[in-house]
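Data availability (excerpt). The following record was deposited with the supplementary files.
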Amino acid sequence: MDKTTTSTSEDHVLIIDDLLSARLVLADMLKELGFTRCLQARDGQEGLQVMQRMPVQLVLCDFMMEGMNGLDFLKALQAENVQNVAPIIFVSSAGDLQSVESALSWGASDYLVKPVNFRKLRAKIERALNCPQNAQGASRGLSLV
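Predicted structure:
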């Protein structure tokens, strides 16, 4: 793994998904990438609560969830005017252009369509963590790989 993506013992990744199985699969993939401190939330509201208690380096968030969905989670972060928000990568089965454009326009760093491919996830994480603009929520021409 690239040295710039190696996590430290202080780094936390937040996985937000209403399906436990999806959270566990992502947590396993993240562990293979060296992220040993994975926090989990069942919906956007719980994700916001986790982020209020602990800083996170990266957020992997589902788009469609029971309770507060991913887009509402992004909107809530914008409304709170949180500075230095961690990069947020959507990992969702909703791969339609409207969902992707909505997520990116509200500040998502990237978007990955389920089922998750390990190499694609690694590439998107590396891009998000190595690009300072991603932490600011600036959207770019991103692919759905």
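Summary of structural features: The chain has one domain: 3-135.
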